[in-house]
Write a structure and sequence with these properties.
Layout: E1 2-8, E2 11-21, E3 32-42, E4 45-57, H1 59-67, H2 76-98, H3 104-111, H4 121-134, H5 138-157, H6 173-185, H7 190-209, H8 242-250, H9 256-270, H10 276-281, E5 287-288, E6 291-294, H11 297-300, E7 309-312, H12 315-324, H13 343-367, H14 376-389, H15 394-401, H16 406-412, H17 417-426
Antiparallel strand pairs: 1-2, 2-3, 3-4, 5-6, 6-7
Helix pairs in contact: 1-2, 4-5, 4-7, 5-7, 9-12, 9-13, 9-14, 15-16
């Protein structure tokens, strides 16, 4: 048994770690489970957690092996059990001592993983993936999977290093520059490279924050400092002009699928470029009189202050709800997902619905000489662009888009300002 004392912010925190004989319930073989007991007292609040060691002993065996071990010469199996229990207790102490702020969840995770996991890139990726799945952030978990698969392909095919052997120390600035060249040779865009390397950067930061790796191995930073600089790319803003919006709105459809795709595309557009995931999550209880309010799912977990977005209903949006909304005025407005679905089922259904809408809106676009890559992504940018052209202030658009900062909105409009200037120049002689 060992007592660990920490002093943090002038507060003393005491942890007592010991091997514990759980004698409340015997197993069928008459033995009891041996556990690791961790006692924590902080600000007069006592917490105790027990972690299984995977070892079962009788009271006599426990006394012989653990309690009176110093007085006896153990041999064979008893000696092996003693060493195993001593190793568990020792590792528990090391893990606790390395934690700046003690947390039972992190303690358990670090205690029972392999010693090599702390420096293993794949392990840390999988921990982030599991955490996001647990929180219902399936899309975020998928993005980490895509990133890990990309690094797996490069590491195994180009560097001849199995992904389960890839360590943080291996990923240097040179390694990342080689990865960038590899991605370019495969025809991948710098936007994709930027997304994947920024995701890797998050994993590095997590490992550093957990005291699993030293910050000196961090490979990101300025090139002149010998670090890897993540490519900075300008997003291609895809928006329809006023004329194109009119063409799309008045376009004839060939079937119900195209009619539904067009209805939901313009529902998103009119509702301030509302993401289809938020459309799917919209409930009848969110609607009050001539408006509805919701929290944007994409940014909900990223900000401490939750901002409500309010959308005023128009004759058009009311008609879309009337045409495609559930007859039972409880639960979700649209039948994209079901109230009984878990987060994984919701993710799959929303993804399939988005693919369905995009597939059929592209058919309408092609038949009307509109951009062939038209998708629901365009609805949000079309709302922003045309609001600006109609004289809306940047502050108004920023609030409508639920951006955290005005600078985000300004960056959002990169590429639109030249068109606005051209329109203004051509109108100067329109007396």
């Amino acid at each position: 048994m060992k007592t660990i004392i920490f002093v943090l912010n002038n507060k003393t925190m005491s942890y007592i770690i010991s091997i514990y004989f759980e004698k409340r319930r015997a197993k069928e073989n008459g033995k009891f489970n041996i556990k690791l007991r961790v006692y924590n007292k902080l600000n007069n609040i006592k917490k105790v957690r027990y972690f299984t060691t995977g070892i079962d002993l009788t009271q006599e065996e426990f006394d012989t092996i653990w309690i009176n071990a110093e007085n006896k010469k153990l041999r064979g199996k008893n000696k092996e059990i003693l060493f195993k229990l001593q190793d568990i207790e020792k590792r528990a102490n090391v893990v606790a001592e390395q934690m700046t702020v003690f947390d039972f969840k992190k303690f358990e995770m670090k205690l029972f993983r392999k010693s090599s996991d702390k420096n293993n890139v794949q392990y840390h990726f999988e921990e982030v993936i599991k955490e996001n799945i647990k929180r219902g952030k399936i899309g975020t978990a998928e993005s980490y999977k895509y990133t890990l698969n990309s690094f797996k392909e490069f590491s195994e095919n180009e560097k001849k290093c199995a992904i389960d052997k890839l360590t943080f120390e291996t990923i240097t600035a040179d390694w990342l520059n080689d990865y960038e060249s590899f991605m370019v040779s495969k025809g991948k865009s710098y936007t994709t490279i930027s997304i994947y390397t920024r995701t890797l950067r998050v994993v590095f930061n997590n490992a550093i924050a957990s005291n699993d790796i030293n910050k000196e191995v961090y490979p990101f930073g300025l090139k002149k400092a010998g670090k890897y600089k993540i490519p900075k790319t300008k997003k291609v803003k895809k928006a329809l002009t006023s004329t194109q919006l009119k063409v799309l709105f008045n376009a004839e459809v060939k079937n119900e699928n195209e009619a539904k795709a067009k209805a939901f595309w313009f529902f998103s557009y009119v509702c301030n470029g509302m993401n289809l995931k938020d459309v799917a999550l919209l409930k009848y209880s969110d609607i009050k009189d001539d408006k509805f309010s919701y929290y944007r799912a994409k940014t909900f977990d990223k900000t401490a202050e939750k901002t409500t977005i309010t959308i005023f209903l128009t004759d058009f949006t009311k008609q879309v709800i009337a045409d495609y909304g559930n007859e039972v005025k409880s639960g979700f407005v649209f039948s994209i997902i079901d109230i009984k679905d878990d987060s994984l089922a919701q993710y799959k259904k929303i993804k399939n619905f988005t693919r369905y809408i995009n597939d059929h809106i592209k058919r309408v676009a092609k038949a009307n000489d509109l951009p062939n890559d038209l998708s629901t992504y365009w609805a949000r940018h079309s709302f922003a662009t045309n609001s600006l052209r109609k004289g809306a202030s940047m502050e108004f658009i920023s609030e409508a888009l639920n951006h955290s900062d005005l600078s985000v909105t300004k960056n959002y409009f990169a590429g639109f300002e030249d068109d606005a200037k051209k329109e203004f120049a051509n109108s100067l002689l329109d007396f």
